[in-house]
UniProtKB/TrEMBL annotation:
Ranges of residues in domain Magnesium transporter MgtE intracellular: 29-132
GO molecular function, one term: monoatomic cation transmembrane transporter activity
Gene3D superfamilies listed in its UniProt record: 1.20.50.50, CBS-domain, SLC41 divalent cation transporters, integral membrane domain
Species, as recorded: Marinomonas polaris DSM 16579
Gene Ontology cellular component terms for the protein in this record: membrane
Lineage: Bacteria, Pseudomonadati, Pseudomonadota, Gammaproteobacteria, Oceanospirillales
Keywords, ordered alphabetically: Magnesium, Membrane, Transmembrane, Transmembrane helix, Transport
Full protein name: Magnesium transporter
Residues passing through the membrane, by range: 281-300, 306-333, 354-376, 382-407, 419-442
Taxonomy, superkingdom: Bacteria
InterPro entries: CBS_dom, CBS_dom_sf, Mg_transptr_MgtE_intracell_dom, SLC41_membr_dom, SLC41_membr_dom_sf
Length: 443
C-alpha cells in the first residue's frame, strides 16, 4: 500500500493538470490513503489536485485529513464549493471534522442534513472528543424486547452493518435491555420470546467513558461491538472494533508526535510561520531548561578551571542520567496510559525502580570509574565520577516515576512535557553531584 500512496503522490505532483490520471489512481486507494497523499504535497499543488478530484470522493477524503490540513484546504474554497462538499455529510462525519470548521461552515453543513442526522449530531456534540458519546456508530440492529425469535431473524435479512454479531433489545421507552447473539438466535425456536435469549454476560459502555478505556473494554469482551448508553440507560448507538482500532492508531500517533512537542493534527506542508511558531515554543522551553542547567554549572566555575578533566567527563554523567530516566519515564507513561498505575501500587513501583537504578548505578559506576582511572590516571577522579553516576541514576529513577505521575495528576500530558522536565532534573542533579564531589575531593 505504501508504494501505491507513493505512486499517487507522484501523479498528483507531475500530472496535476490531468484529472483522468488522478482519479484513476485515487479509485485504487482508500480515502485515508488519498488524504495522506494530499498532505504529502505542497499547498499550491494540493489545491490544484483537489480541483481535479471527483465531487463524490471529496467529502470522504476531507474527513480523513488531519485537522490543520483540512483547515488549510477549506480556507481556499468558496461558499459554493463548500455547500457542494457538504451535500451528503452525515452526523458522524461532521462530528469528526467540526473542531476544524468555523461556525459558519458547520451551519452550512447542518442545513443540508435531514432531521435524523441533525439529531445524531446534536446528541454527539455535547460530549468531549475523547469520550465514546462523541463517536457513536448509529448503524445497528435494534429490536423490541417483546418480539419473538422468528421476527428477529427477519431483521437479519436486511442489510447487516459491519462488525455486527448481535441484536440489541430495548423497551418501549428506548432503554437498553440486553443483547442477543446471532448464534443463540439461530438455534432458537421461532416462537420463543427473544427476551429469553438475552446474553447475561453482555455489558454496555457508558457514553462518558474515555475512548481508550472503551477500546480496552471491547477487547476484553471478545465481541465485535458493544452498546453505548446514556445516564438514563437510553440506547444511543454502539462502539465497534473499527472505532477501537482507530482509537489505538490515533493514540499511538499522538504519543509519537508529542515526544517532539508536536500535535498529531500538524500538516507536513503547513505555512512556514505557523510551523516555526509551533516548534519555536518547544525550543524556547528547552532553552530555558538548558540555561537553568548551565546556571548550576556556573556555580562551580572555579572548580572547572582547576580540574579540566571534570569538564571533559561532564557529558558522561548527563548522558547516563538522561538515558536511565527516559527508560523509567517511558515505562511509567505506558502504565498510566493503560491504567496500570494506582495509588496503591505506586509505592511498590517506586521502590522497584529505585532498586533497579541503584543496581545499574553501582554497575556502571565501576565501569566508568575504571575507564576514568585508566584515562586520567587519577583514582580520586574515578571515585568522584563513580559516585556521581550512582547519585544521578538513582535520581533519574526517582524522577522517572514521580514526574509523569505528578503531571498526570495536574492533567498535563506526561508524554509531551515529561522528557523536558526529566532531562532538566537529571542534568542538574548529575552536574551538582559531580562538580560538588569534585570540589570537595579534588581541590
Amino acid at each position: 500500500m505504501h508504494s501505491q500512496v507513493a505512486a499517487l503522490i507522484e501523479t498528483l505532483i507531475h500530472d496535476e493538470h490531468s484529472p483522468e490520471s488522478i482519479n484513476k489512481a485515487i479509485s485504487e486507494l482508500t480515502p485515508d490513503d488519498v488524504a495522506l497523499a494530499l498532505e504529502s504535497i505542497p499547498l499550491t499543488q494540493r489545491r490544484q489536485a483537489w480541483a481535479n478530484i471527483k465531487q463524490a470522493n471529496r467529502l470522504d477524503i476531507l474527513v480523513e485529513m488531519r485537522g490543520e490540513s483540512r483547515q488549510l484546504l477549506l480556507r481556499e474554497l468558496d461558499d459554493s464549493e463548500i455547500e457542494a462538499l457538504f451535500t451528503d455529510v452525515d452526523a458522524e462525519d461532521l462530528l469528526e471534522i467540526t473542531d476544524s470548521l468555523p461556525d459558519r461552515l458547520v451551519d452550512i453543513a447542518l442545513k443540508q442534513m435531514d432531521n435524523k442526522q441533525r439529531e445524531y449530531y446534536q446528541q454527539g456534540i455535547v460530549y468531549n472528543d475523547d469520550v465514546v458519546g462523541r463517536w457513536i456508530d448509529h448503524e445497528l440492529l435494534i429490536a423490541s424486547q417483546s418480539i419473538r425469535a422468528s421476527e428477529a431473524l427477519r431483521l437479519l435479512k436486511k442489510n447487516t452493518p459491519d462488525y455486527t454479531d448481535m441484536v440489541y433489545l430495548v423497551n418501549r421507552t428506548g432503554r437498553w435491555v440486553g443483547c442477543v447473539k446471532f448464534d443463540r438466535l439461530f438455534k432458537a425456536q421461532g416462537h420463543e420470546p427473544i427476551s429469553s435469549l438475552i446474553d447475561e454476560d453482555c455489558s454496555f459502555i457508558h457514553a462518558d467513558t474515555e475512548l481508550t478505556k472503551a477500546a480496552e473494554q471491547l477487547e476484553r469482551s471478545s465481541l465485535s461491538a458493544l452498546p453505548v448508553v446514556d445516564d438514563n440507560q437510553i440506547l444511543l448507538g454502539r462502539f465497534h472494533a473499527g472505532l477501537a482500532m482507530e482509537t489505538w492508531r490515533l493514540e499511538h500517533e499522538a504519543q509519537q508526535m508529542s515526544t517532539a512537542g508536536l500535535n498529531e493534527e500538524s500538516d507536513l506542508f503547513a505555512p512556514v510561520k505557523r510551523s516555526a511558531a509551533t516548534r519555536g515554543i518547544w525550543l524556547g522551553i528547552n532553552l530555558l531548561t538548558a540555561f537553568l542547567a548551565s546556571a548550576f554549572i556556573g556555580l562551580f566555575e572555579a572548580t572547572l578551571q582547576q580540574v579540566v578533566a571534570l569538564a571533559v567527563l561532564m557529558p558522561v554523567v548527563a548522558s547516563m542520567g538522561g538515558i536511565a530516566g527516559s527508560q523509567t519515564l517511558t515505562l511509567i507513561v505506558r502504565g498510566l496510559a493503560l491504567g496500570q498505575i494506582t495509588r496503591s501500587n505506586l509505592k511498590s513501583l517506586l521502590s522497584k525502580e529505585l532498586k533497579v537504578g541503584g543496581l545499574n548505578g553501582i554497575l556502571w559506576a565501576i565501569v566508568i570509574g575504571v575507564v576514568t582511572l585508566w584515562w586520567f590516571e587519577s583514582p580520586m577522579l574515578g571515585m568522584v565520577i563513580g559516585l556521581a553516576i550512582i547519585v544521578n541514576i538513582i535520581m533519574a529513577a526517582l524522577s522517572g516515576v514521580l514526574i509523569p505521575v505528578l503531571l498526570d495528576k495536574l492533567r498535563i500530558d506526561p508524554a509531551l512535557s515529561g522528557s523536558v522536565i526529566l532531562t532538566t532534573v537529571t542534568d542538574i542533579a548529575g552536574f551538582v553531584a559531580f562538580l560538588g564531589l569534585g570540589t570537595l575531593l579534588l581541590i
